[in-house]
Amino acid sequence: MKGLSTKNLSLAYDGAPIVRDLNLAIPTGQITALVGANGCGKSTLLRGLARLLKPIGGAVYLNSTSILQLSTKEVAQQLGILPQGPVAPEGLTVRDLVAQGRYPYQNWLQQWSVQDEKIVQQALSITDLLNLAERSLDTLSGGQRQRAWIAMALAQDTEILLLDEPTTFLDLAHQVEVLDLLYELNQIQERTIVMVLHDLNQACRYADYLVAVKDGRIFAAGAPQQVMTEEMVREVFGLECRIVPDPVVKTPLCVPIGRKGERKLQTKSSDLQFD
Fold this sequence. Notes:
Elements: E1 4-13, E2 16-25, E3 31-35, H1 42-49, E4 57-62, E5 65-66, H2 72-78, E6 79-82, H3 94-99, H4 114-126, H5 142-155, E7 160-164, H6 172-189, E8 192-196, H7 200-206, E9 209-214, E10 217-222, H8 224-227, H9 230-237, E11 241-245, E12 252-256, H10 258-274
Parallel strand pairs: 3-8, 3-9, 6-7, 7-8
Antiparallel strand pairs: 1-2, 1-4, 4-5, 9-10, 11-12
């Protein structure tokens, strides 16, 4: 089976089980979003998929081979990961950071090549960073820095990209900028993208496949129109809401009710009874 999948995967931190007997097949060439409440295991799952966390049970498969049977270099040539809040050495330029994406292809026989330079230039161009290539990362805005990290992942030239909350700490404009970039990468290059997202509406807008995680298990998985229901939001997030069509792209839109909304609904109900 091509792509990334798990079979009876169980993961733990310090002996405490987080992900339990999880079976998941990531759709190849599509964008998958992992959603769920804080502490549900979605970031742990992403780390397990990237072989950053060794399973206590079950396995992760990369192109039908157990990921544990592959060398670190083999994994890095097929799968790129952008962790949450990555940190680079002080003074590193954008070009230097992006060039690090070519390390899986370097060895004592094969040093930096014309092909490496070409791929780095392509990554800088795709992420619109050519004019910032010699700038220090420290001088960039949050959105520009995130694009630089994505460019480094692109320079790995992998078919699969894993991103842990790529929009965290970004303002709304930069969130959309980063998500638009990932969407374009998927559409133009058919890269398989898996990302953890907190914003349910962004997940529905940008993902082809939605995986809702609760207590380390998959509560629901499928197209956003199938998964994003009022019942799912209630069970997974403990939140009452209404699901309506997004007025722009017609994907499901989650409208939280909250206490103020409850009062409004109660007021409307009382008015109807009075009438």
